[in-house]
Amino acid sequence: MDELVRNATARLLDSGNVAALIAGVVALVLVLNRSTWLPLRNVVTIAHEGGHAVVALLSGRKLNGIRLHSDTSGLTVSTGRAHGPGMVFTLVAGYPAVSLLGLGGAWLVTSDRESWMLWGCIALLALMLLAVRNAYGVLSVVVTGGVLGAVSWLASPSWQALCAALLCWFLLIGGLRPIGELGRKRRRGRAGDSDADQLARLTGAPAGMWMLLWYLVGLVSLVVGGFWLLLMPQV
């Protein structure tokens, strides 16, 4: 056990992993600070609505469009059966999509494939742009894709890795905060048509159970993704 701890500490103190740790601290500050969270929450909303859209298509539903709003809320509209597994899976997908995207990105970064992660995100944003139905949504997706494109084209490999790690941390940490925000809104009676409440009506399982499930997915993703970023070879 002592040797395992020493090896883990040695890896953590590697210069690349110290950079990954700093990126994690920066991401935590960005998520916790209200002035930075409000604009950057648009990135989380994009991933959230993208999760709804992808699962809707995979479950055989027709995707009608995605709207992203300036208050950082979003709406994904799909048509199909109003009940059944397809609708349930579509509603479930939004919140965990953010954390799972961060987890997948962390795996790519620690596998020395940060360029795959960045270009993969750009490709997903380009596809999402085809489904966005309002001007603010188009602006949000284009700006996000433009930033990632600039990093991919202009930054050196080491800076690409650092920026990709920062994005992963932001998604892993930021994926949890909206669930807490939803819980506070529900306690005030202001979220009666939330994903969790719609799932409760469809399945009979309480909304709190779905929120707990999303928290667990987010926490596991954060622990595993953080481990990969901090203790795997290099960032």
TrEMBL record:
Keyword Transmembrane helix recorded: yes
Domain of life: Bacteria
Pfam families: Peptidase_M50B
Keywords: Membrane, Transmembrane, Transmembrane helix
TM stretches of this protein: 12-32, 87-109, 116-139, 159-180, 212-231
InterPro entries: Peptidase_M50B-like
Protein name per UniProt: Peptidase M50B-like
